[in-house]
UniProtKB/TrEMBL annotation:
It is a single-pass type II membrane protein. This is Penicillin-binding protein 1A. It catalyses: Preferential cleavage: (Ac)2-L-Lys-D-Ala-|-D-Ala. Also transpeptidation of peptidyl-alanyl moieties that are N-acyl substituents of D-alanine; [GlcNAc-(1->4)-Mur2Ac(oyl-L-Ala-gamma-D-Glu-L-Lys-D-Ala-D-Ala)](n)-di-trans,octa-cis-undecaprenyl diphosphate + beta-D-GlcNAc-(1->4)-Mur2Ac(oyl-L-Ala-gamma-D-Glu-L-Lys-D-Ala-D-Ala)-di-trans,octa-cis-undecaprenyl diphosphate = [GlcNAc-(1->4)-Mur2Ac(oyl-L-Ala-gamma-D-Glu-L-Lys-D-Ala-D-Ala)](n+1)-di-trans,octa-cis-undecaprenyl diphosphate + di-trans,octa-cis-undecaprenyl diphosphate + H(+). Pfam families: PCB_OB (PF17092), Transgly (PF00912), Transpeptidase (PF00905). GO terms for cellular component: outer membrane-bounded periplasmic space; plasma membrane. Residues 791-836 are annotated as: Disordered. Residues 448-741 form the Penicillin-binding protein transpeptidase domain.
Amino acid sequence: MSDGSTSSVKMRIKREIGGFTGLFGRVRHRWWFRILAVLALLSGVFVFLVWLFIARNLPSVDTLKNYEPPLPTNVRSAEGLPILSYARERRVQLSFEEYPKLLVEAYMSAEDKTFFEHHGVDFPGLVRAAFQGLVSGSTPRGTSTITQQVAKNLLVGNETSYLRKAKEGILAWRMEDVLTKQQIMELYLNSIELGRNAGGVEAASQAYFGKELDQLTLPQMAYLAILPKGPSNYDPDRHTQRALDRRNWVLGQMLENGFIDQAQHDSAVASPLGTVPRQTPKFERVGGYFTEEVRRQLIDKFGETDETGPYSVYSGGLWVRTSLDPRLQQYAQKALRDGLLRYDRGRGWSGPIGHADIGRSWLQSFLNTNIGVDYEDWRAGVLIERTGDSWQVGFDDGSTGTLPKWAATMPVRGQGGHAFDAFKPGDIVAVAPESGQWALRSIPKVSGGMVVEDPRTGRILAMQGGFDSRIQSFNRATQAQRQPGSTIKPIVYAAALEQGMTPASIVVDGPFCVWQGANLGQKCFRNFGNARGAGPKTLRWGIEQSRNLMTVQIANQTGMDHVVDLIQRIGVSRQKFPPYLSYALGAGETTVTRMVNAYSILVNHGRALNPSLIDFVQNRKGAVVWPENWRPCEGCNAPDWKGGAMPRPVTRAKQVIDALSAYQMVHIAEGVVQRGTATVLRDLGRPMMGKTGTTSGPTDVWFVGGTPQMIGGLYIGYDTPTNLGGYAQGGSIAAPIFKQFAIPAFEGMEKVPFTAPQGIRMVRIDRASGKPVTGGWPSSDPLSGIIWEAFKPETEQRRGRRDQEEQPETKAVEKKAAPKKQEGDSDFLQREGGIY
């Protein structure tokens, strides 16, 4: 090598660095380290993206700590007995300890056998499902743990996608950190949908087997465990064999997992499914109109679903205590129905009560109409087909029967001809058993409403709004606006008593005309049936005999402004009627409920009452949520009495009418039962008040009245006002219906007189003239000429004095004879034990 050559070799001196820094420096340039670094970076980016687009917006699992599944509202009677539930699905919430151990193991075997071992996610299963989805080109299905299913059902939703699976997994992992395994299993068993409108396992047990969980057998538990995969896939009626195969597979898994032994397995496999037929929820026979009105009021207060508040009717799990007395409801229902049928009898067949498009499945079409009849042995049936002189009729339980021609010969109302010839396939008719077959029955066209109220509290004890709520949903007890006719007269007369008249005031029962202006001319009023005037009579007589001419005379003297003011104050109308005399005869419209409440106010000494169907409402935990100011009555159920004064609740009710006037009116209305237009009730043999009513036409007939413990009222009439016939009167149609109710309702009830408020004076008067009497006493004869009358202080007529001095010789004779002291009013009252 020559001296001028240059070397290409370069030398670099490195200093060896020890420790972690040196190690990192030595490996960071290795290929495998670079690959790991890239993977870590990608993982970090992936985790960040998952958090950004998925996990960040997921709901909090903490909400599940206090999760409350949707539960139905349960309605109870006044005695606390359950009568109905408002629900769109069956659901019963149980705690984990209430679920049988074998049932839990059946669900684990079917859905997640390692449930108590994993942390919410089955990672091998997820990878397997994802791979199968990629290979098949479909979205992933299955492999969800029970925890993931809870997350899906309660937090995520049912979307089928990879995104939903990712959300499930994240939430399931979080749930395992927040809830115990027992809490997660409880949520699952309470919330899973299992078909037949059943939410949760307890409801499914009732729906499929008609049993509670603790009554189920092993094969029945195994069947319920297969339903989460798809209730319709294992329907016991349509897919019986598929359901058996899947149930037996679950039993095999239970054997494999050690939950049952071989003998249990073999016995269960050999068992049939044992399910009961699918049942449409039965219509509650107790208080259909009453409970429907309760439902309306609850919806107005709380709403229908969760979106409307925490105490919604269909998912809030409310417990509602009503004022319904099932015994009285049954009597009122039967009395009104029997009365409607009596009036309607002989008028021919009223036509089909509905129609179903029977198509391929007459049963399902019939069930969809939700039409039924709940009267004695009557049933609603759908006409399927005619064969010769008979029709095949089907019922809601799937059974069929025969309706022969001889049992359907009544004429068609308004058309003529036989009902049998007017039948068409799909017609829904009312029938009753007769001679081993079925005979046609007619649902009455005339209708009406009836209400029974406790006048001491305003609680509605019974309500019937028509013949049958499944046929006629319109509640005539609360919704029908009708003219009350003469039942308004006690309110008119009460206004007169407030303005200074007395029960003994004399009013002329004679012609009365008023000038109504140039356009309307002169209006002359008439008594019912054009009865002639009877001349001067007492105010009491005018009510007892329901005289229109006396009523308008009294209203005119009192002033119609005062009359319509009291009609509004006492609750007959929401708004004040115009001050026209026709309103004193019942021209204004009102409801049965309002009229019954008005009479109850009179009996309650004029204190306002708010007619109520609901006593109180509790949430699912038992706390009273309505009324807001509700307080428990401490010591009200004390086992014994220690001699102290009886507790008297403070009365805060508004005084809407003078108490003395109210009692005077009640005392007068007792005479209506004793010798007036409601004498059909006299033989009930107890203190009663009331008033009948008949509107123009007549289109409606009324009765309102009762005892100190119970006031009832009803009307009968067509929904479209139609003449009932000249013979129709409140005393001949409405009062007998009330009597049919009262006979069983009053049985065993104490005979209590109407109590008089402080200040009332009971005076003997001549019933015809209204003048005080000193020489005789009232008798038990309703037509006695001498009666006790109620007066306000200083309003009764004064007895006259003898003006002529007695002769001396007469006085001497009296002294010798030592006559007996004449008995006075107070002596009589002491001897008779009081007077009502």
